[in-house]
Specification:
The protein has 56 residues and is mainly α. It is built from 3 helices and no strands.
């Protein structure tokens, strides 16, 4: 990666690792709603992928 960046004249920068500060609790009604909405979004975004996986 650094060779690709330096080829264009950009100097690579070291970035600090960012750790997650919040924990997501998926238990209960709130968690159920999050899972349902994220699943619907994923199915809408990648319908062809899931169709291919279903027919394998």
């Amino acid at each position: 990666m650094n060779q690709k960046i330096t080829k264009y004249g950009v100097t690579p920068v070291k970035r600090p690792k960012v750790k997650a500060t919040k924990q997501l609790d998926l238990r209960g009604e709130g968690g159920k709603q999050i899972i349902i909405s994220e699943t619907k979004l994923t199915l809408r975004t990648h319908p062809k992928t899931f169709t291919k996986l279903a027919t394998m």
